[in-house]
Amino acid sequence: MNGPADTAGPDRSGSATTRDLVYHFHKMFDGSFPEVPSTLGPSSYMLLSSIALQPTNSGKPPVILDLGCGSGRLLQILVELGSPQENLHGVDFVPEQIARAKQRLGDTAVKLICAQSQNLPFGSGSIDRIVIHMGLATMLPLERTLNEINRVLPPGGKLAIIVDGRARPDTIDQMYAKIIYQAVAEEQPDLILHATGDKRVCDPVSLCELTARHTDLILENDVKPFELLLRMASWEYLSFLEGEYLWELLSHSGRDRVRTAVLKLFDAHKNKPATIPLAMQLMVFEKRADHATAD
């Protein structure tokens, strides 16, 4: 879901809170993202897959890391698209998600590891492509995660990420963001500033400045904004939202108030499915050998 248009860095004291919320959520829920069409054509999973599978400069199939792999759906797609299984790695910091990924992938050679993004269990320059689907903002502290990504990528290696975008005014997603953030701010005012992680991730200018200071990564092409086009009835949308970890911050009465407010957003649709555009951005960074990393 889209958050406030605040691009300032988070209160670093909130890092543990963010990790705890994400960890608790992913212990209970699958974590796979809905596979729906986007305004760029394929699903968001397929957008990342097309970048991950690009051959290396040597022409060999790339070694790919799905960082924050969740239950392994993106890795499963990469297997289905013909990526050599021994070249695929998935890392998640929640053991329950790694267990789900192992169940999903079954008897394959995909390597799944429970580890932190700030301490990746790979040698320097050993990973050709890193993909992150909607998780980078919660990999705190972000500077340490970026340092590790930079370390394991060789020159010419690529990082492809999908993050929240800026929702169009008066869409259901934009109005829901106002509802949930107001509810959390009323009940947990000390947590709202950092509950969604590092907001610099969703601002291309801030993220490019951050990568320039801490890595050898540069933005490969223009940022690609797009929307996922969910088609859901009100009850389906509520079920989808209740899997969002921000709900963990609300009391039972707070959740009831949010449910009531969300149902009103569907009044004009008379209980029929509505198209709900979820704003996202695709960014691809490449590691350059001739780019001096700042201290």
TrEMBL record:
| Keywords in alphabetical order | Methyltransferase, Transferase
Q: What name does the UniProt record give this protein?
A: Class I SAM-dependent methyltransferase
Q: Which CDD domains match?
A: AdoMet_MTases
Matching entries from Pfam families are given as: Methyltransf_11
Which part of the chain is the Methyltransferase type domain?
65-161
One GO BP annotation of this record: methylation
Q: Name one GO molecular function term.
A: methyltransferase activity
Q: Write down the PANTHER family for this protein, in alphabetical order.
A: METHYLTRANSFERASE
Q: Which residues form the signal peptide?
A: none
| The keyword Secreted is annotated on this UniProt entry | no
